[in-house]
Design goal:
Blueprint (H helix, E strand, L loop, with lengths): L6 E5 L4 H12 L3 E6 L2 H15 L4 E5 L5 H15 L4 E4 L8 H23 L8 E6 L12 H25 L1 E8 L5 H4 L7 H14 L4 H13 L7 E4 L5 E4 L14
Parallel strand pairs: 1-2, 1-4, 2-3, 4-5, 5-6, 6-7
Antiparallel strand pairs: 7-8
Helix pairs in contact: 1-8, 3-4, 4-5
Length: about 260
């Protein structure tokens, strides 16, 4: 997909992974709507981006992604400003200090954002198609003992995204992808310093050493890879600490061409 002039909406875009994804889109000529619940940081990010990429190419919208009304309103305002929508990145995520809120942000809002993206981009409804990349985690494909609910939310993102991808492209012209980065140099990782139990901390440090820590710019490169590659749909891209990209293919038995009656 050529990004020049395309319109993207990114949730959780004020800082961390979302900010890096928004910037790589802007660098490649896209217009970006930044959604985030953190208004001061979001406005500061928008102002910094405006200096480098032009105020006309950026929109910041305060948004609590757990509010369906706010999310719908942000999609509408994005279309009102930019007149189209081509890319959606459901990135907003939190840890599991409050496990119900974790599921609401990490999984339920991703499902809502995906359906809203399809609604506005669907060729069946007069749109021009597009791509949705949902940010999962390596904890969405392997167990994670320090965050069982966090892992459940990310497993859910992977299952939802890959399952919906089996029909979405053919029906709506919208590709669905899941990005599964390992540990990232973000506030989410910094917050794990609360781990007090020596045994848990030792196990966590071993896992961290094995996987390494990704920069947000490396993760943005993985996102860009998924967006640009129009030959892939339903892709699950794992990213390890050394920046290595590794695709997890869909089982052949699940592919649409193999789902014909016997």
């Amino acid at each position: 997909m050529e990004l020049q002039g395309k319109v993207a909406l990114v949730t959780g875009a004020a800082q961390g992974i979302g900010k890096a994804i928004a910037e790589i889109l802007l660098k490649n000529g896209a217009k970006v709507s930044l959604l985030d619940i953190n208004v001061p940081t979001g406005e500061a990010t928008k102002a910094a981006f405006a200096q480098s990429y032009g105020d006309e190419n950026i929109l910041f919208l305060p948004c609590d992604v757990t509010s369906e009304n706010q999310l719908k309103d942000c999609f509408s305002k994005t279309l009102e400003k930019f007149q189209s929508l081509d890319i959606v990145c459901n990135n907003a995520g939190i840890s599991e200090e409050n496990w119900e809120n974790c599921l609401s942000v990490n999984l339920v809002s991703v499902i809502k954002g995906t359906y809203l993206g399809i609604q506005h981009m669907s060729k069946e409804a007069g749109g021009r198609g597009g791509v949705i990349v949902n940010i999962a985690s390596i904890a969405g494909v392997i167990p994670y003992f320090l965050g069982p609910v966090y892992a459940a939310s990310k497993y859910g993102v992977v299952g939802f995204t890959t399952s919906l991808s089996l029909t979405c492209l053919e029906k709506h012209g919208v590709r669905l992808q899941a990005l599964c980065p390992g540990f990232a140099d973000t506030q989410l990782l910094a917050n794990l310093k609360w781990v007090k139990d020596p045994e848990q901390k030792e196990k966590h440090d071993i896992i961290l050493a094995r996987f390494g820590v990704l920069t947000t710019s490396q993760i943005a490169e993985g996102f860009l890879k998924l967006v640009m590659d129009q030959t892939r749909n339903g892709a699950l891209l794992k990213m390890l600490g050394n920046g290595l990209f590794e695709y997890e293919p869909l089982p052949a038995i699940c592919l649409p061409e193999n789902l014909t009656s016997i």
